[in-house]
Amino acid sequence: MDVPCVRVPREEGEATRQVLADADLIAEEFEIAVEEGWLYIPITDATTVSALLDGDGESDIEADVDADVVDHDVPDRDTQTSPADILGFEPSYERIGEVVVLDEDDPERAMEIARAIVDSDLPLETVVDKASKIKGETRIRDWNVLVGKGTETVHREYGCEFALDLADVYFSPRLATERHRVAEHVEAGERAFDMFAGVGPFVIPFAKRGAECVGCDLNERAIEYLRENARRNGVEERVTAICDDVRQVATDSAYENWADRLVMNLPHSADEFLESAVALAGEDCLVHYYDIQHEDDPFGPGERAIREAAEPEYTVTVETRRTVRSYAPHEVNVCLDVRLERF
């Protein structure tokens, strides 16, 4: 059947396939086809892949590779039994590394789905169900382990590896495309500061592109994983991990006026840290400010808060207003890319 595929010359196919696999963008239910010197790799999200190939920034797929997204007839993977085949319906879940995450209110339904996932041909053996909302300053939640040994895993995303334990740290795979969008614009030699770094999903790809990075977080376990992930990805010499309140770190003269790039991914309360962001910002600093607001005015509150904190010391220019995803009915998760330039 015709499905979205990346068409790429056969000799460049493996490198392209690996990039797509690292981003979890290969449609595993279909076979990869080879015809007349071309490889057709079935994909799950044509929009995201097109952005990889045609985006404004650099892509992990080499710029001179003759690759594009096309519809092509590829065979089903006959030997693969999906959870939907077993259940008779398509379950909703997400993957973080080798852990499958459910969000089910009914324990019996959750266990039914978990058993179907394990009994399917997916290479997954651990299934957990959300047992609480995100809570506390460290933004962690409780989990019910339905099948498997626990909540620790290694998640792979756009060529980076992130060790983490869901019970100890916050991590969202849904932001992978957004993180990659930002990382594509990072240049070697930049000084980047992630004010709420977690296990390093922004810091590590920044460092892999040659930036000097600081990641700060209140969660001691997250900082331990950030250090491990820096080693795992071979960037430990370019990553400084700090376990502290970033408001305290911002008073340290070592980081005053330091950053060329700031990440403020703490929706709902990032505005409370804008004074610290201004203290950390260098002469010319790009701030990635994440917010959750009502769809009627998703960008206004954040922009007004940034201007209030930074002006008149800085000229404030909003370079990008981007809706990242829906968050709740009538609420959206947004990003403001804001340039701060000191007079």
From TrEMBL:
InterPro entries (UniProt xref): MeTrfase_TRM5/TYW2 (IPR030382), SAM-dependent_MTases_sf (IPR029063), TRM5-TYW2-like_MTfase (IPR056743), TRM5/TYW2-like_N (IPR056744), Trm5a/b_N (IPR040601)
GO biological process, one term: methylation
Cross-referenced Pfam families: TRM5-TYW2_MTfase, Trm5_N, TYW2_N_2
Keywords of the record: Cytoplasm, Methyltransferase, S-adenosyl-L-methionine, Transferase, tRNA processing
CDD domains per the UniProt record, alphabetical: AdoMet_MTases
Gene3D superfamilies: 3.30.70.2580, Met-10+ protein-like domains (3.30.300.110), Vaccinia Virus protein VP39 (3.40.50.150)
Domain of life: Archaea
This protein's name: Class I SAM-dependent methyltransferase family protein
Native organism: Natronoglomus mannanivorans
Organism lineage string: Archaea, Methanobacteriati, Methanobacteriota, Stenosarchaea group, Halobacteria
